[in-house]
Amino acid sequence: MSHDVLFDTPENRNLLAICTRRQIRRIGVGGIIWGLINIAIGALAIRETVLGAGALGLGALMLGSGLWALRRPSLGILLAEAVTMGLLLAWNVAIAILVLRASGEIGVQGLIVPLLAAAAVGGQYVRLRPFRDLVASVDPAQIKATKQVCQSLRKLKLKNEPAVVETADRRSRVRLLPDRAFLVQHDLGRAFVIPCDVAAGAIADRLAKSWKWRIEHPLGPVTYRFNKQNTEKMRAWLGQAPALENREDSL
Question: Measured over all CA atoms, what is the biggest interatomic distance in the chain, rounded to whole angstroms?
Answer without folding.
Answer: 75
